Amino acid sequence: MAKITRIKAQKNKKRVNIYLDGKFAFGLDADNFLKAGLKVGQNLTQKQIDDLVFKNEFQKLLNRALRLISRRPRSEKEIHDYLRRKKSPPELIEKVIKKLKQLKQVNDLEFARWWVEQRSTFRPRGKFGLKMELRQKGVNEKIIKQVIDEKVKELPLAQKLAQKKFKTYKNLPREERYQKMSAFLARRGFSWEIIKEVVGALNAPKPR
To answer: Hey, which residues does 3 pair with through a beta bridge?
Structure first.
């Protein structure tokens, strides 16, 4: 058993420091502090202390994950990898991800839709390129297929990109222009069939 000898609010007022037997023991967020009903003079078992420390670490990790998500949506794998880089215990990571799902902050289907929409608007890519990116984000194949089938119209995206790039290459010899534009679209993940159709149409000799 250990006795709470002091409870001190931290500077941000959202956390408190708990002192046991005259020594600092652990910090605790205000919500968990109030739920636990801690007070000076109270005796805690080792199990109670371990539970409070776990809740404290869980809350800190959850707050970190929420800050990460606030910058932009994240896939489940991105969050898992981020928390693992912070050297967090695996069981704590799984608990945080489960909580994020309950809060509807993590959903790979919605993430994939957001990712594809962002790419289509600001940096168009072909289906192959999008599939590779989403796989790297840990999104499963079923979701990738569903989202790409419903969201990606590859031909108009390729035409839009090619028309912009055509201005850069318009003074090159026709064969060289064809090769450079084809390579550019290939790097953006468009299929050869789409590339051939789009670049061929733009690069066709003008009728006399």
So the answer is: 43
Residue 65 CB contacts under 8 Å (≥ 6 apart), including other chains: 79, 82, 83, 96, 97, 100, 105
Please give the C-alpha separations between residue 146 and each of 136, 139, 140, 196, in angstroms, as whole numbers. 17, 11, 10, 26
Average pLDDT over residues 46-65: 93
Q: Is the pTM of this model over 0.90?
A: no
Number of structural domains in the chain: 2
Q: Does the pLDDT at position 9 exceed 60?
A: yes
Could you tell me the sign of the dihedral formed by the alpha carbons of 130, 131, 136, 140, in that order?
A: positive
**Residue 147 sits in the same domain as residue 159:** no
Domain that holds residue 128: 108-151
Residues near 86 by beta carbon (within 8 Å), at least 6 away in sequence: 61, 64
The answer to whether 52 and 26 are in contact (CB under 8 A) is yes
How many Cβ atoms sit within 10 Å of the Cβ of residue 44? Answer: 19
Closest CA to 96 of 66, 62, 63, 64: 62
Dihedral angle at the C-alpha atoms of 114, 120, 125, 127, nearest 10 degrees?
Answer: 60
